[in-house]
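ARCHIVE CARD
Drawer: 12
Card no.: 0347
Subject: one protein chain, sequence and derived structure
Cross-reference: see card 0346
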Amino acid sequence: LGPVFNATQVEDSQLGLNPSNCCSIDSTMNGGIFWKLDDSTKLLGVQVILILAYSTIILFGVIGNSLVIYVVFKFKTLRTVTNFFIVNLAVADLLVNTLCLPFTLVYTLDGEWKFGEVLCFMLPCAQGMAVHVSTITLNVIALDRHRTIVNHTETKMSKDMCAVVIGVTWAVSILLASPLAIFREYETVDLSPEESIQVCMEKWPSSSMNGSIYSISALLVQYVLPLAINCVAYTRIWNTLNNHMMSGGRNDRQQRKKKTTKMLLTMVVVFAVSWLPFHAFQLAVDIDSTALYMKDFKLLFTVFHIVAMCSTFVNPILYGWLNNNYRSAFLSVCKCYPAFASRKRRAGGRETRKNADTLYTECESTHV
């Protein structure tokens, strides 16, 4: 343990590495060198648990987000502006599930970058981009609802404008994630005369301070700022809806708006709670770099990373739990419920027609 620890200290001081990519594990682990330290992740039982945890997140994330994308484009009544933003969020979460988690799991268990030089530069950037798209989209949804509910803007955002906003979201996300591809190095590190490993790591110019600046900036942009915007927006939305209901505006449309807002607010709470341990841990490492040399640093990082990644599959569950339209569409696709698109046209009594009309009206009036 001693020789590897000293080599790690030398490499860390030379390269100036800092954790900054909240999706990829390679930069946080200083190019893979820490993989050679003895820690709990080398225990078979721990590895089995990690494989099950990551596999479960990937499975539910891919199925849930793919289902959201499918039902929105399958059923015309779900093709609204807010739902297109939700689809954008699902696409970003789907990318995290496919581009982030499998590679992180393999790197965690194996301890060496085995995906080649091209992916060394492409994957961290793509991973960071997907996370930025998720956080920005949550803000866009909140600001759009704030515009229509608090500012009483009757004019709905057009689908063309929605497409422009989504395009700008991806462009900004690529720009924010680009340093993860630019300041990166793929090389072979000799651990001993007989052993060497391939590593993919961040390499910032001049001093380690540049990496710390980017890491803290990523924390602000990916967590603190989005959370602040969401909190302000949804607090004002919730107060506005409550005031309308208290002043005699207690009608079905207001109730539906409040229910939809509750669903979206729950999404933000899940985002805040799931990402808090990870970002707090990252901040602690930025403040005190000696934490990098803890025996179970790798295990702690992995556990917090798993908790953060749970947010990628929880949203589809929230849609099905808190929104009648998504729940009906999901069940319809699973052949467990009458066809969603034809429900409003079914014959067979006033109550059946009333329920179908209510579903259609809710979808149109709440945008979800």
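Annotation on reverse: The chain has a mean pLDDT of 77. The longest strand covers residues 184-192.
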